[in-house]
Amino acid sequence: MNLFDVYPLNNIEITKASGSNVWDAEGEQYLDLYGGHAVISIGHTHPHYVARLTEQLDKVGFYSNSVKIPLQVQLAEKLGQVSGKADYQLFLCNSGAEANENALKLASFYNGRKKVIAFKGAFHGRTSLAVSATDNPKIIAPINETDNIIFLPHDDEAALTQAFESYGNEITAVIIEGIQGVGGIKEASVSFLKLIRSLCDQYNAVYIADSVQCGYGRTGKFYSHDYAGVDADVYTMAKGMGNGFPVAGISIAPKFKPWHGMLGTTFGGNHLACAAALAVLEVIEQDNLMKNAEEIGTYLITELKKIEAVKEVRGRGLMIGIDLPQTLSNVKKDLLFKHKIFTGEAKPNVIRLLPALNLTKDHADQFLNEFKKALKG
Ligand SMILES: Cc1ncc(COP(=O)(O)O)c(C=O)c1O
């Protein structure tokens, strides 16, 4: 049997990982500023994480949501506390797409409506509703095409106001990333997020904050949307939540009332997933990682802005986009193969930095030195 060949792969096999470093099968060391796409939040093989998962595996790895799982309650309490939303409710699932899918369903159950506002450049996942709300026709199958999604220009207050004036009573939800990831590290402005909040209030629509990539402390606040000083109704999260263990969730405002059977999943919230998510939150809290993300991120952004060859530096904390001119389209590959640094990318020529939140200043300096060398070719 062959693998279904959907991924363009780098010819590297990772066989060992620790903190912000990984090693390939030949023993070559790399600096990891990608974290497997914003997933490694507390560093590879963090000792507390390994111990908690191993202990849990020795007790019980999985049981479904047909029995009490006190670890879920502990996780909800911890998440409520660390995210500053103690009165919200937690539904656990397995991936970012599934989190957004459930958030959109929840919105539609809540107000009985069908239309969703999403934005140009958005990426919300590959399941049916999530992919329909994703601005990439190439990955939308004919069966996912729907008139229920209204795509608006990103951060355009006039267009948003106009859409609500035209369809207000049909709109179930507005879904927006605090900082677009796949779209090239583009932050929604404070005034735009405030306007979403007030229009959703006015029209009884649901404000869904897709925090799958920009959340979980990466920007220095638990949810990057919260820089706007207004609460979303639903926050979706995944990537950094389990430091590599597949776990996702939605944090749901108190006004939503659950009923049995409303949402569900076989694997979501299993014992191992909860242990992984708890270990991550414990490390984020104990090691003050949100502060570190903000400080090291600000340092990196400041230093990167000084480099003349760079067109623009965008982002916040440890979610950084380095926009390069097309003449420097070799830099991303050179960083990996010549300078042994993993980074992410976005089109047309943006390097994305999504490292672990405990990245050190030495790591940041190592990157800056190698990046400057890579720019020279
Ligand atoms: C903002 C955002 N939402 C949703 C998703 C989908 O997450 P997953 O791949 O876990 O389904 C992604 C993945 O890149 C993402 O960046």
From TrEMBL:
Note one Pfam family from the annotation.
Aminotran_3
Keywords assigned: Aminotransferase, Pyridoxal phosphate, Transferase
CC cofactor:
pyridoxal 5'-phosphate
The record's SUPFAM superfamilies line, in alphabetical order, gives:
PLP-dependent transferases
- A single Gene Ontology molecular function, please? pyridoxal phosphate binding
Q: Record's superkingdom?
A: Bacteria
Entry-linked InterPro entries: Aminotrans_3, Class-III_PLP-dep_AT, PyrdxlP-dep_Trfase, PyrdxlP-dep_Trfase_major, PyrdxlP-dep_Trfase_small
Family to which this protein belongs? Belongs to the class-III pyridoxal-phosphate-dependent aminotransferase family.
Task: Give the protein name, as stated in the record.
Answer: Aspartate aminotransferase family protein
